[in-house]
Amino acid sequence: MEYHPELSGTPHVVSLGLLGKDIYRYYDECAPVSVALQTTVAMYPDLLSCASDYPRENVQIAVQPFERGSMLWVENPYYDSGTIWVIFYDGARNMLVNQSYIDMWREGLPLSDETPPPSLIAPIRGFGYVWRTYPEVRYNLGWATAPEQTGQGTAQMFRGGPWVIHRMGNNHVFILQVNGRADDIPRP
Known about the structure:
The protein is an alpha+beta fold. The protein has two domains: about 1-30, no CATH class; about 35-185, no CATH class. The chain is built from four helices and ten strands. Helix 3 packs across helix 4 (about 135-140). The longest helix has 10 residues, at about 20-30. It starts with a strand and ends with a strand.
């Protein structure tokens, strides 16, 4: 319902709004695709047919390689935390997969006191929190092989739920689907 003080004294001072039309338009129209993602989106027209949200450009992104996969953190400008994706090869499904977690780490939480094997690294901050909290993540990834790298990039969600994420300075784009499949593709 909408209040229209300019119509005071008429039966239309309170009227029904156009919420249905706004919702229909939200689901009927595609959002513009980020320039950084356009070539990749064109390569996957069936999967990425319609952007469902405006691109989040110049967001903070971190990535860390592990023995059997990687972790990817993307800032969420709408909340105090980001999203962490765990990406690894699943031999049972014979494909690269992703699992997502809300970044629950906060400054002051204890770090792992484990000593990694030579030339490997114990993950810290949000990556370390997920790695220590969820045994399956640790099992699937192993130890980190390099420190996390931070930068900026673009993240955009598409109809049906897949996220497309590109970290600037890196020639790879992640397509992370809600069914758990992940694609790490070279950026054309």
